[in-house]
Amino acid sequence: MSRYGYGGLGVAVLMVAATVYGVVQLLVLSSPTRSVRVSTVLLAIAVGVYGCGIVTVLLEYAYTRTVSDQPHGGALLNTVKTASYTVDPVIEELVKITPLLLAAWNVKIRRQWGLTDYVVTGAALGAGFGLLEAVARFGLDAARAISHPAGGWIIPDSLQAPWIPGPDQVFAAWFPAPFSTLDFGGAHPAAETSPHLVYTAAAALGVGILVRGRRWLRALGLVPIAAACAHHMFTNYAAAQPGARDTQSLAEDLNGILWTVPLAVLAIAVAADMWQIRRAKRTVPGVLLREERAGRTGLTALTGYGLWRVPWSTLIALRFARMRRALFYAAASTPYADIAPLHRTVAWTTAQIDTTDHQHAWQGIGLRTVRQAARTLRDRRRLWFILISVVLALPALVFLGAGSFPAAAELQERFATSDGPAVLMAFGIAALLWTAWHLTRLLRTWQTTSALPLADAHAIIRFRIWTALGSLIAGTVLLLRMQQEGLGAGDKLFRNFHLLEALNNFLAYLGFALILLALLALFPPGGGLAFAGAGVAAGTITVEAAIHATALGTLGVVLMAAAGGGAPTDGPPEGQADAGSQSGSRPKSEETSAVTEEQQQSFDQSQQHLNSLSKRKQSDEVGRGFEKDGQKYKPEAPLLKTGKHGVDWSEGTARAIRDGRPQGQFGSAADVKYAAERGAELGPNKTGFFRLPEGHNCIEYLPDGTTRTPNSIFVKVYPNGKVHAYPLTR
């Protein structure tokens, strides 16, 4: 072994890598049934660090001090030792699943998350909790670290020294722990399994069963939670009794198979969720893709679509699959009225994917298109917040990031001496003020997004709020304790404390560094959530229109561009009777022309005649048009087919929800012919509004998902006599 012989990654960097990699393994394995986004699960790691970790510290500190202060409480050291395998494991496991219980308090999250979502998110919470222990215990030991020939770093504390596994060990293990214990003389060490990830994954399955189960099945949810607490207590008991060889041997055997627990738990969750998905597919209408309706599986249909324009169509397919699973989970136990907004969003996305499921739709869609789409959702205030947060977090990144490389350990030593602790403390106080201000923004965003139907948006806001609260509480406790005890930024804050002895030698400036790093988890939401929050708050978009932004974000704009939905209309916006026309003139009074008796009779005769023909012959006859005063007039071809406002148009509801305004549709060829005749009365290059005749079949779709019968049409005549029109209500 040598001091700097191993040119590997830093101590803290390796611990973070092990933590994230374990969660990523579950993310990949859970792909068939997971509805929660990757970013949401990764954010749960921060909640585990700053939410669960901080609350556990306070509870365990309060318990041990309260018991030791009792007349027969005994010495603090003995109280801490006993609590380590009696009370503390129960506290830790219950605290780690508390965010899941609080999240499930929201009805949308409770209904839209499947068991898989609970397991994966719970594992992330546990992994974050374990990361806090590891960083608090060894984050400042870069100067003492010794490289191991097989990889990683040894912290020379004892014959069974702590060992930070290297990349080779991390990426070769299932759910690797941030640190392990290296036996004396071990030449080929292997990364141990992260116990907190395992415990919380199992307990999270119990939470999912408690929340989603029915009747007596809910009682089964207590079993995984109790098992996690029991195993945690037994492991800590074995660690506290080094002389009990039989206990030690059994604990080692159990730890050797610990990696199988998340796989078994996930298998149970996936099987249960797959059953619910298959059941919901048969009952929820309008959400199967055209290829699925033709007999192909969902995986085959989405894979084929995802290959049209990698990575954009791929990302859209993945986002749609997760959103549809959320709908299926909600449909399993929710009345339709409660999931109608989400159903409309999924139905709209289904129609858009069907429309763009061919190579031609994706021609011209590339990085430039995505940049333009992102520009429409850009929030310049978000960029400023990110910049300020990164600047504030910079000292902590240097201290715990670059400084955790043993070759650059002098950076940590400089922060630990002279003015280094004071600098971290000053930046930490500034970060607390910045976090407090951001917390108020998050609370306002919580209110403005409360009506959004997708659970992921609600989970992201809650996770960020809990991370901010945990950071503020930690900073407040640090400052109060320093003031009460007269401690400096470089002094130790806690002694004789459990939490795997992580805080036994906890230094104040390490706490401020962790508070600074919390800012990196508080970046304001981008894409759809930022657009929806700002738009709803400002009143520039309706809640229904914001649904699509939160569901797809930038990808939603890309999808609309591929479908041609982003192109400007050739007439005034539907539903805006006073909008100016884009060419030609309008009736001077801008009034709607009434239906004359002659026009009504002509419509009745035309309707009777066309109803006697087949649909194809109706389209052919009306599509040929007619001449008037030497000018030929005919309706636009899409009006007689599946084009926008056409008689066979199938996207009226989805378009109304997306645009946040009514969308009219002609109901028959006779309706289209009536519009063409009114256009002939106007003449080329003119526009006007006309009342619809009695007996028409037009329909108007509203943004809230309902419909009504329109009473008018807008007509625009091009110079060549082609007539564009759509129904509306005036």
TrEMBL record:
Q: Where is the composition biased (Basic and acidic residues)?
A: 617-635
UniProt entry tagged with the keyword Protease: yes
Q: Where is this region: Disordered?
A: 566-647
The UniProt keyword set, sorted, is:
Hydrolase, Membrane, Metalloprotease, Protease, Transmembrane, Transmembrane helix
**GO molecular function terms listed in the Swiss-Prot or TrEMBL record:** metallopeptidase activity
The residues that cross the membrane are 6-29, 41-63, 118-140, 216-234, 254-272, 383-402, 422-443, 463-482, 502-523
Please give the superkingdom of this protein's source: Bacteria
Q: What is the name listed in the Swiss-Prot or TrEMBL entry for this protein?
A: PrsW family intramembrane metalloprotease
Q: Which organism is it from?
A: Streptomyces endocoffeicus
Source taxonomy: Bacteria, Bacillati, Actinomycetota, Actinomycetes, Kitasatosporales
